[in-house]
TrEMBL record, chain A:
SUPFAM superfamilies: alpha-helical ferredoxin, NagB/RpiA/CoA transferase-like. It comes from Desulfofundulus luciae. Signal peptide: none annotated. InterPro entries: 4Fe4S_Fe-S-bd, 4Fe4S_Fe_S_CS, Cys_rich_dom, FTHF_cligase-like_sf, Helical_ferredxn, LUD_dom, LutB/LldF, NagB/RpiA_transferase-like. This is Iron-sulfur cluster protein. Coiled coil: none annotated. Keywords: 4Fe-4S, Electron transport, Iron, Iron-sulfur, Metal-binding, Repeat, Transport. Residues 302-330 form the 4Fe-4S ferredoxin-type domain.
From TrEMBL, chain B:
It comes from Desulfofundulus luciae. InterPro entries: FTHF_cligase-like_sf, LUD_dom, NagB/RpiA_transferase-like. This is L-lactate dehydrogenase complex protein LldG. It comes from the Bacteria. Pfam families: LUD_dom. Residues 20-191 form the LUD domain.
Length: 724, 199
């Protein structure tokens, strides 16, 4: 898929409002229902346990495969090891033909989707009927499932009625209950006449040769019981060592997938059991074939980074909470969709497609919080990008921007100053409403703030200072504060001054490097990390403070990770990481000293949780308490914890997606009735204030530092990006 | 979640509490739950339920408990007929299937059955309604207890069925609909005394 084709596909998906609203509505309810399902359960403990079991299984994959084969064979199954998709497909077709079987019933199996089994069987003159209601609808519509757990979530009842009418050649009313009855009636005929059933598996136990399947409709039970020949396709990653390992997986899977405590049916098959064929003959042991599918899994298990993806239990929670998936559905992926889909696609189905799709990830990190297998999905997607760039290279222009400009502090800063002058003709009231040429995408539905005439770095000499210095704090400004929102930096200085802290701004600091990482340029990222570490080493300060959570994440978590293998730099990176804290947490820790000086704000304020602050730094309560201390009337927006859609260069690459995510955010903001949106991230500030400005909504967007500064007695004019 | 002692089978665990918990969970899933003191009462209840459901044809999956209850006589007593033929015909023609279960899990409202025998499976799959009988003493607290006690048996049964409520789907517009491929109605009778026949 080309870049252009991907953009086209995302546009079409966005235009399809029924997909967006079905997924969006489901997603909002999902979070609440899931919360309920986990009441009295220790999700963190459970997922750590799942991760431990699956990690062990990934490390011992081959050994477990051998053990499983031995045990299942002992219990009467025939186990076939399929190295590739083609091996698996051919095995099944051969088996069916050898028995003169024409019709096959299938219960839902992602592995069979992965190997494109249905198309292949069709080419071979065999009919495979999907029996899961959603899958059947999709099959009749000649589509592909758009969700791992709810394949037909993108369709309306009217569409389903049309599809059914075509199938049974009679008009069908769009009434859900009668359509379900119709499916029962039609599919029952298939079940009763089929000689072969194909199913997937959720867990395969090496110790006992047991296959575990979870379903709600009961089609899985019929598929595995009625036909006298049963084929199970199971990916090697479904193996676990022990029978008792089933427990934590069964506890998280339904809860995370559909917020059920357990699915209606959990079926555990250990070896071949009796069957009665369509002619009524009793078979002591049915024919049970288990296909252990590799198709990239061994390669994944051998990869020190991507092995982690094998911890996935396919609960689809990562899709359910992903803001991009909610907008574009199945476009975000291939057979497997969403964040995990991107990774699996790279290894199991279509590496080319994965390369395009990986860019759809906005990096909001929400999926990581919900993952039942405790997988760092955003990290894995980042690694995919890095490898892609390493292999395929990057466009000349991008290379120049990152490798020549960004890592060269002087050139980079000069360029931004020049931009500040050049933008003049496009600026109105401090906002850029139309940008020329290649930046045009940036202003689609969103105004941008202008680049400051005087960057923060040139204002350092005039910053407020404390009367009596109790300690020194070094400030990492980051690009946005430095060049777009210098007012935030000044506010930070004012708040710190009132607490008795002197603010130092090391000159050698530069961009934190996150954008370089985002596009997969690790070398540039490393270079910037070293520059920044060196810049702060020379400063004698107890803390390093930043007013941007993305910068904080880079300094605190990513630098030590990035430089872990470098004997000299890893120590220096850890030294810096330990000193780093975000603005709100720091002030929160010293707030008793602040409160007495504050003039109550007396405004309705709603707080926007920035993804990186909430999910990486785990800061949510601190800024809220500070706002309350400042006398604000805090009103929460619903849904809470929604990404603003900024995602750095993402907003340039996928302006429509960025804008659509922002729209949901703006609705939440407006719904709260607040006069001010408070936040702790200049990137979100740019995005949200841009959106509100574009809609001409008179709601101010302010960094917590700006709000606190404005409440401190003897206040200067509040800077909100308009008048700098 | 290391092996938590509190979660392991505790024989002294209050059966009444487990039962209450089961009832709450199972009813939330749409299962109808009854409890009787002994086999005779159970038989009476079966007669009453078969009548109430208006079931004309009933499929039975043989088991020691089903035999002890003399369900064939009970079905006849309710004016219904026990289906015959091969197992597919027996289950396929019935409007109610009756089978016995080995275990019930309070936490999730789940019934557990060794369904290795084809009759057991078909009777709980094909008819539109399913009646389960189980000994009250076979209630366990959690899924974990159930799995650990199965693991402790050594040999895992060929086909284990965990059933929690009637068959359901939400595949069209996320609207919950009951009874798609499996039974739309699930009834369970807990039997306090004599319910472990054949142990
Ligand atoms: S990081 Fe955010 S955008 Fe990316 S896959 Fe996860 S939830 Fe989706
Ligand atoms: S990656 Fe995690 S959240 Fe996503 S399907 Fe797998 S286990 Fe579930």
């Amino acid at each position: 898929m080309s870049k252009a084709a991907l953009r086209q596909a995302t546009r079409e998906a966005l235009a399809n409002t029924s997909v967006c609203s079905a997924l969006g509505k489901f997603a909002d309810n999902y979070v609440i229902a899931r919360e309920q399902a986990y009441r009295h359960k220790d999700f963190e403990g459970l997922r750590r346990e799942v991760a431990r079991i699956k990690r062990e299984a990934a490390e011992r994959m081959e050994e477990l495969a051998i053990q499983f084969s031995r045990e299942a064979t002992r219990r009467g199954a025939t186990v076939f090891r399929a190295a590739t998709a083609q091996d698996a497909r051919e095995y099944i077709a051969r088996l069916a033909k050898s028995k003169d079987i024409k019709t096959i019933v299938k219960s839902k199996s992602m592995a069979s989707e992965e190997i494109h089994l249905n198309e292949y069987l069709k080419e071979q003159g065999l009919e495979a009927v999907e029996t899961d209601l959603g899958e059947w609808i999709i099959q009749l519509a000649c589509q592909r499932p758009s969700h791992m757990v709810m394949p037909a979530i993108h369709m309306s009842r009217n569409e389903v009625a049309e599809i059914f009418s075509r199938e049974i050649k009679e008009p069908v009313e769009p009434d859900i209950s009668s359509m379900v009855k119709l499916a029962r009636r039609e599919l029952r005929k298939k079940f009763l006449s089929s000689w072969m059933g194909i199913s997937g598996a959720n867990i395969a136990v090496a110790e006992t040769g047991t296959i575990v399947m979870v379903t709600n409709e009961g089609n899985g039970r019929l598929t595995t019981t009625l036909p006298p020949v049963h084929v199970i396709i199971v990916g090697l990653e479904k193996l676990v060592p022990r029978f008792t390992d089933i427990v934590p997986i069964l506890e998280v899977l339904p809860r995370s997938a559909t917020a059920q405590h357990i699915t209606t049916y959990v079926t555990m098959i250990t070896g071949a059991v009796p069957a009665v064929d369509p002619n009524g003959n009793y078979h002591e042991q049915k024919e049970l074939h288990i296909i252990l599918l590799d198709n990239g899994r061994t390669r994944m298990a051998g990869d020190p980074v991507f092995r982690e993806a094998l911890q996935c239990v396919r609960c689809a929670a990562c899709l359910n909470v992903c803001p991009i998936y909610q907008l574009v559905g199945g476009v975000f992926g291939d057979v497997y969709t969403g964040g995990i889909g991107t990774v699996l696609t790279a290894f199991f189905t279509d590496p080319q497609k994965a390369q395009q799709v990986q860019n759809l990830c906005l990096g909001c990190e929400r999926c990581r919080d919900y993952c039942s297998g405790n997988i760092d999905l955003p990290g894995l997607i980042g690694e995919l990008r890095r490898r892609t760039v390493e292999k395929e290279g990057m466009s000349y222009v991008q290379r120049v921007i990152f490798e020549k400009v960004l890592v060269n502090r002087r050139v980079f800063h000069k360029l931004l100053k020049a931009a500040s002058r050049l933008q003049k003709p496009f600026t109105r009231e401090g906002k850029i409403r139309h940008l020329p040429l290649f930046l045009a995408g940036l202003t689609e539905g969103r105004s941008l703030p202008a680049i400051a005439e005087i960057p923060f770095r040139e204002r350092v000499d005039k910053l407020p200072r404390p009367g009596r210095v109790v300690d020194r704090v070094a400030f990492f400004s980051g690009c946005l504060v430095d060049f777009v929102y210098p007012g935030i930096g000044e506010s930070v200085a004012k708040v710190l001054a009132s607490l008795g802290f002197e603010m130092l701004c090391p000159e050698g600091q530069t961009c934190c490097g996150y954008p370089a990482r985002q596009v997969g340029l690790t070398n540039s990222f490393t270079e910037l990390a070293r520059q920044n570490i060196a810049a702060f080493e020379n400063i004698n300060a107890r803390y390093v403070l930043t007013a941007c959570p993305t910068c904080a994440e880079a300094l605190k978590f990513l630098y030590p990770q990035l430089l872990a293998d470098d004997p000299v730099w890893s120590k220096r990176a850890r030294w810096l990481a330990e000193k780093v804290t975000d603005f709100s947490s720091f002030v929160f820790a010293h707030r008793e000293k602040l409160v007495p000086f504050m003039i109550p704000l007396k405004q309705k304020v709603t707080y926007h949780d920035s993804c990186h602050l909430k999910r990486r730094l785990r800061v949510t309560g601190e800024p809220r308490q500070l706002l309350i201390d400042a006398g604000a009337e805090l009103v929460e927006m619903t849904p809470a914890a929604l990404c603003c859609g900024f995602g750095g260069s993402y907003s340039i690459k996928f302006p429509e997606l960025s804008r659509s995510v922002l729209d949901r955010k703006l609705q939440a903001v407006l719904g709260s009735g607040a006069e001010v949106v408070a936040l702790d991230c200049p990137g979100c500030q740019m995005q949200i204030s841009g959106g509100l400005d574009h809609e001409r909504r008179p709601i101010r967007v302010m960094h917590t530092a700006e709000i606190l500064a404005s409440c401190i007695a003897g206040t200067v004019q509040v800077q909100d990006g308009k008048n700098n | 979640m290391a092996l938590n002692k509190e979660l392991l089978p505790d024989r002294n665990r209050n059966l009444e509490q487990l039962y209450e918990e089961f009832v709450t969970r199972a009813r939330a899933l749409g299962t109808e739950v009854y409890r009787v003191s002994d086999l005779a009462k159970a038989r009476e209840l079966v007669v009453k339920l078969v009548r109430e459901m208006g079931a004309r044809k009933v499929a039975l999956a043989e088991s020691p408990l089903v035999t002890a209850l003399d369900l064939a006589a009970a079905v006849a007593g309710a004016g219904a007929e026990v289906t015959g033929g091969n197992p597919r015909e027996r289950a396929g023609a019935a409007d109610l299937g009756i089978s016995s279960f080995e275990m019930a899990i309070a936490e999730t409202g789940t019934l557990v059955q060794d369904a290795t025998e084809i009759d057991q499976r078909l009777v709980s799959m094909l008819p539109p309604a399913h009646l389960a009988v189980v000994s009250t003493r076979r209630l366990v607290g959690t899924l974990m207890e159930a799995i650990y006690s199965l693991a402790a048996r050594g040999q895992i049964p060929g086909y284990l069925a965990f059933i929690s409520g009637p068959s359901r789907t939400a595949d069209i517009e996320r609207v919950l609909t009951i009874g798609v491929h499996g039974p739309g109605r699930v009834v369970v009778i807990f039997i306090d005394e004599g319910g472990c026949a054949g142990e």
